[in-house]
């Protein structure tokens, strides 16, 4: 039999929707608004997304370039994007591409020098929603 938890109020809420919870070891607290990813994506090629959250669209912007447009915008361009690629390839936030509405990933391959490449890549975004 499934359990159901119904709550009329939660204490410790300081602003609309702001909830702090006790972290591991009961020695610290974590703010749920600040500690959650506001977007994430797993893509097999630029423009081809396998799974995502808060993703409006993606565009193949050329070899090794993947433009990401968010469903819900960020409050500022000071958000943090974490990227990665499968195998030995690397992914990075494209220079100057961070906007409140999204960002662009540059995929890089390493042989003797760096060159742009398409491939499986992943990203997550942290910061404040607008």
Considering the chains and any ligands shown, give keywords for the structure.
130 residues; mainly beta; 5-stranded antiparallel beta sheet; 4-stranded antiparallel beta sheet; 1 helix; 11 strands; 3% helix; elongated
Mean pLDDT: 82
Separation of the first and last Cα atoms: 40 Å
Low-confidence stretches: none
Largest sheet: 5 strands, antiparallel
Which outline best applies? Answer: elongated
- Give the class from helix and strand content and strand pairing: mainly beta
Radius of gyration: 18 Å
Count the DSSP helices.
1
Helix content: under 10%
Task: Write the element-wise H/E pattern from the N-terminal end onward.
Answer: EEHEEEEEEEEE
Number of strands: 11
Instruction: Please state roughly what percent of the residues sit in beta strands, choosing from under 5%, 5-15%, 15-25%, 25-35%, 35-45% or over 45%.
Output: over 45%
